[in-house]
Design goal:
12 helices; binds nicotinamide-adenine-dinucleotide; three-stranded mixed β-sheet
């Protein structure tokens, strides 16, 4: 079986690529990635020489190259993660998000449809999405698979649009698909613009920890490897044309999460208690900031038997330990030096 994974050099994608390459030696895993600032092949050095793995450098927004790739490799299945993924960047450059997240997804859908026409037996287009498409919750309630879409940021609007296109291709052309909407991920190899690695990096470097507004924004957090395990499960066992929500049953107010991180980092760095908390700085709120996201992941739990394998305390500990013992990785991504790796390795 030939499986195309898009965005496999990114944070979540690299964990999915590794899991499938190792677990399914009889599949061939193709990793298609444009290697934007968020894509880093150093995330995959341990599997880059595996015989069932191929890296393909390419941009999903460029239609001719995408349709050519599908004709050449005849991918049976697609697991689509490539995206512009950072909300703050979407506020300053929404069009980049429409190009990659909407048009890029359409290019993949069209190439997949053209390749298999209506002979879709045994084929699947699996689209990875976010809980942010549902908009915001008040103090109570949970997002379920039937919650109406109500995106509030250009990022979530672009992801919502791509979800709708995937579903529409299922209805209109009979394209077999599955969609998952997941909560915030954390773990090793996350680019340090996202909250947890940004704050770990800032604590290491004694830089301010910028907390939006009053810090009462609430998110559900899931360890990235648990997300990768869920993706493997949905890819193989999920029902066609269904959506599954994936979450950690693990809600945190940002300010509480930051304080917990500070506490654990102080222990690791042998700082006197309370040292890192002094770095917390409240900053002007992000426009359109959603108050609370929380996922009801009972459908995937009930139907596919998935639940998180680690607690938040365990996941956070693994994550902190990883960033502390991979100072070179952090240095290389913050300086952009990792981008030279591709040139060295693949040119
Ligand atoms: P990421 O930003 O770490 O990685 C995105 C990857 O896509 C990078 O390797 C990048 O090079 C690649 N990419 C970007 N534009 C491309 C293009 N035009 N062509 C080809 N490749 C391109 O993102 P992530 O956090 O790993 O998220 C992966 C997916 O999961 C996204 O679709 C995101 O919406 C979704 N998601 C993320 C989270 C989260 O907390 N990070 C939660 C739920 C869903």
């Amino acid at each position: 079986m030939k499986v195309l994974i898009t965005g496999g050099a990114g944070f979540i994608g690299s964990h999915v690529v590794r899991l499938l390459v190792k677990k399914y030696p009889n599949y061939h895993i193709y990793n298609l990635d444009a290697l934007t600032y968020a894509g880093n092949l150093e995330n995959l050095t341990d599997i880059e020489n595996e015989p069932n793995y191929t890296f393909l450098k390419g941009d999903i927004t460029y239609e001719p190259a995408i349709s050519e790739l599908f004709k050449t490799y005849k991918f049976d299945n697609v697991i689509h993660l490539a995206a512009e993924s950072h909300v703050d960047r979407s506020i300053t450059d929404p069009l980049a998000f429409v190009k990659t997240n909407v048009i890029g997804t359409l290019n993949l859908l069209n190439a997949f449809k053209e390749l298999w026409k209506d002979k879709f037996e045994g084929k699947r287009f699996y689209h990875i999405s976010t809980d942010e498409v549902y908009g915001t919750l008040g103090e109570t309630g949970l997002f379920t698979e039937t919650t109406s879409y109500n995106p509030n940021s250009p990022y979530s609007a672009s992801k919502a649009s791509s979800d709708h296109f995937v579903r529409a291709y299922g209805e209109t052309y009979g394209l077999p698909f599955v969609i998952t909407n997941c909560s915030n991920n954390y773990g090793q190899n996350q680019f340090p613009e996202k909250l947890i690695p940004l704050f770990i990096n800032n604590i290491i470097n004694k830089k301010p920890l910028p907390v939006y507004g009053d810090g009462n924004y609430t998110r559900d957090w899931l360890y990235v490897i648990d997300h990768a395990i869920a993706i493997d499960l949905v890819f193989h066992k999920g029902k066609n044309a269904e959506t599954y929500n994936i979450g950690g049953f693990n809600e945190w107010k940002n300010i509480d999460l930051v304080k917990e991180l500070c506490k654990q980092m102080d222990v690791k760095l042998r700082n006197p208690e309370g040292t890192s908390e002094q770095l917390i700085t409240f900053v002007k709120d992000r426009p359109g900031h959603d108050l609370r996201y929380a996922i009801d992941a009972s459908k995937i739990n009930r139907e596919l038997g998935w639940s998180p394998s680690v607690t938040f305390e365990e996941g956070l500990k693994i994550t902190i330990d990883w960033y502390l013992s991979n100072a070179n990785w952090l240095k290389s991504v913050t300086s952009g030096a990792y981008q030279n790796y591709y040139e060295k390795q693949y040119s």
